[in-house]
Amino acid sequence: MAILIDKFLLREIGVAFFVFFVTRFAIHTLFLKNRSRKLPPGPKGWPIIGALPMLGSMPHVELAKMAKKYGPVMHLKMGTCDMVVASTPDAARAFLKTLDINFSNRPPNAGATHLAYNAHDMVFADYGPRWKLLRKLSNLHMLGGKALEEWAQVREVELGHMVRTMAKSNNQGKPVVIPELLTFAMANMIGQIILSRRVFVTVGSESNEFKDMVVELMTSAGLPNIGDFIPSIAWMDLQGLEGGMKKLHKKFDVLITKMIDQHVATADSRKGKPDFLDQLVANSANSDGERLSLTNIKAVLLNLFTAGTDTSSSIIEWSLAEMLQNPNIIKRAHEEMDRVIGRNRRLQESDIPKLPFLQAICKETFRKHPSTPLNLPRISTEPCEVNGYYIPKGTRLSVNIWAIGRDPEVWDHPLDFTPERFLSGKYAKIDPRGNNFELIPFGAGRRICAGTRMGIVLVEYILGTLVHSFDWKLLEGTELNMDEAFGLALQKAVPLSVFASPRLDASVYA
């Protein structure tokens, strides 16, 4: 019996040693294999929190500085998360075109959870049937080429209100605050398409409160949140960001719920003339069995009212500010417009293809002041390789659009505002619609901004109308502040306030 037990023990001990050495060999081999998979270069960062403190208050600027040291594809340990940053056109192309499908999802974050109805919207939703349905309906009934043509008259009417308001302010000797007027006009344009009504009657406290809410949303959603990168301490809300997001979400939810309730109450008045919300409700299912809930619909309305007003208005404001610094640009734009349009009528959208210098001004603003300095983050579904570097599964991707637009290896004199660069030579055929990675203000690939077409139309038409209709002058004794305020949308730190005096025939402002 003792001999049998000894043999049994020896066998078990032998098996245990065999398993121990095989496991140790496997772990050692895996360690060597992973170590041979070289991550992109980047700063070491701090213990636990990683590179989070290095981003400062202007992450796009700090990341651009780091890229000069570490290269076009840079790795940062952000808390417990891996992040890569692409800072050149080639690097952006590698991620957003070659590896587009692998980076088609968004990472979980507080903004998506607390502001965007737990990612039930179009911006933060996972790439899949629901996202495709939201995107399809938005393109078909609001953001696509045919839909944009159908609501051209709405843009014309609302811009007429804006022009008359500005002329009235001039007659009263008052300056105009550009972002306030732009938010008012754009919110009413979007309101008429979505809800068949203007959402604001006059520029005032109600529209300004809405503008402040939009700016707060874009700012809080754009700031790096410690809890996103160290999930185990997210409950502590160390920066107070999540608490602010929850309060702001309640305000927006009250506003959007009110809009929907009023829309339902006026359904009979729209028979035969459905608006975007009607179409969204009527077509809220697809062949995959995906259906849109009330939460999805609210989330999409939030997307359209916030991103639809803030991103385009910031571009127009930056463009006017740059032109005020460069009066010769305004002079040349006026000469082109007077030649093509004259001074007896307002600019029309059909005039824009005949105004190459205006289009060049818009492109130059998209380059130097992209509305989204860091594209919305994406996350890798599977491990991959870029430029010979290993990118682990679950790595967050950020493309520094701001840095690409100011790269001296891509652009001649990138800090200058020079629209002429787009009229001839090597930059003439560059377009901001996501195909030329030197200029991707709306991103690129599957998750390119759904409102790219609308954004370009609004910027060209509204900016063109403002430049054509008015002469511009700063308030006496003030200097033009060109500082940036970071957020999902890149705002001017100090809103542009100017005198706008009519330069067309008086009948245009009647």
From TrEMBL:
Function description: Catalyzes the 3'5'-hydroxylation of naringenin and eriodictyol to form 5,7,3,'4',5'-pentahydroxyflavanone and 3',5'-hydroxylation of dihydrokaempferol and dihydroquercetin to form dihydromyricetin.
Binding site residues for heme: C449
Catalytic activity: a 3',5'-unsubstituted flavanone + 2 reduced [NADPH--hemoprotein reductase] + 2 O2 = a 3',5'-dihydroxyflavanone + 2 oxidized [NADPH--hemoprotein reductase] + 2 H2O + 2 H(+)
InterPro entries named in the record: Cyt_P450, Cyt_P450_CS, Cyt_P450_E_grp-I, Cyt_P450_sf
Co-factor(s): heme
Top-level taxon: Eukaryota
Keyword annotations from UniProtKB, A to Z: Heme, Iron, Membrane, Metal-binding, Monooxygenase, NADP, Oxidoreductase, Transmembrane, Transmembrane helix
Transmembrane regions: 13-32
PANTHER family listed in its UniProt record: CYTOCHROME P450 98A9 (PTHR47944), FLAVONOID 3'-MONOOXYGENASE (PTHR47944:SF18)
Record family assignment: Belongs to the cytochrome P450 family.
Recorded metabolic or biological pathway in which this protein acts: Pigment biosynthesis; anthocyanin biosynthesis
Enzyme nomenclature, EC number: 1.14.14.81
Record has Transmembrane helix as a keyword: yes
Name of the protein: flavonoid 3',5'-hydroxylase
GO molecular function per UniProt: flavonoid 3',5'-hydroxylase activity; heme binding; iron ion binding
Pfam families membership: p450
